[in-house]
Structure prediction request, 461 residues.
Amino acid sequence: MQEAPTRLEVEELQENLRVVQELLGHEKPLARQYLVELRGRLDALHAADIAYVLEALPLEERLVVWDLVKADRDGEILLEVSDAVRETLIASMDSEELVAAAETLEADELADIAADLPASVIEEVVQSLPAEERERLRAALSYPEGSVGALMDFDHVAVRDDVTLEAVTRYLRRMDVLPDHTDQLFVVDREQALKGTLPLARLIVSDLELGVAGIMVHESVKLYPEDRAEDAANAFERYDLVSAPVVDASGRLIGRLTVDAVVDYIRQKSAESQLAEAGLRHEEDVFAPVLDSFKNRWAWLAINLVTAFIASRVIGAFEESIARLVALAALMPIVAGIGGNSGNQTITMIVRALALGQIQGTYWAKLLAKEMGVALLNGVVWGTLLGAIAYAFYGNVALAGVMALAMLLNLVLAATMGVAIPWVRARFGKDPAVGSSVLITACTDSGGFFIFLGLATLFLV
Prediction:
């Protein structure tokens, strides 16, 4: 089996993308010559690198490159591209091409893209699979997204606990290649119940006449398919795992989870969190049609419009005060802006802690008290500084005092909302990251304007 090419560094990826774009840009009379050169370059790239190129091209050029890729690589490339780009590639393929691409994938890989394939294609592929693979596919599809079962790899090496290391070594030598990320063998009994693990490091340095039961690790991390993927990712990070066995309710070994699947999951969740904070519903193709991008973005923009209108009405309620003291118009964005930044810091920290499972129900009050303390300290420091700056510019002691107090109160508001927003969303089973940036900014803008202008009306006008 040929080894996969090493993944290229970012500079090399960008260089390949530049060359592909250059070849695609030549005039049509020379197209055949350049397309042959382009096909040769694509054949030499890793599937992940081709995915990178496809994601960086507009739809028309993307489909030209996709047509040049060897048909037997379609499946592995579909696995590597983003969900949004995968949809455009699948839409350009007929049923026969999709079936051929799907048949090159293993059951757990096919499960990853099954949701994007037409039902008729999945049905045809399932019928063509051997009975064992068919069962594996059905099992993989039965687990919910975000569970260990959905990430599980069925390809693993298991050995019996009643054999010698010499027998294990002979068994391994008969294999063409070990599954990727095999750092340990799983030890089972006659009923496939997991008994422990046999690290390859121990196997290599131990006397071959010893039995597996004598040197295996009895207590090892094991997962269940129903476990949350977030919990499994935390276990991999905490214990520096490369792989971990997955067992069913009766303790029978059914698969394994590997570090590459965990890393992919973490990256996906990180990207989703970044999108959610900005109010985007899902990942978007950079070159998606205008209407598709509009559908992805309109919801939170509508909410933002409402909050912006509320903020404008808050300002409108104090028009007379602003007219009497024009300095208020220049200073109020500072209060709102710093409050929004502070609130985003709080909410980002809390959303991350929630994702890591570090916040339990009884600790929310302590967390709020801690954030309020940070807000008060920041408010005193930066409020005093901004008050001094306001006095330096306008020579008004009362205005400086209002500026300092408004900053303090808005930072307290930002801390309160920074804790409250993810708490409320988590309490109702919603993703705490979704729209958090939009919501916290809305609160600190409207609240900051109201606090600053209200105080100014009371003490200055």
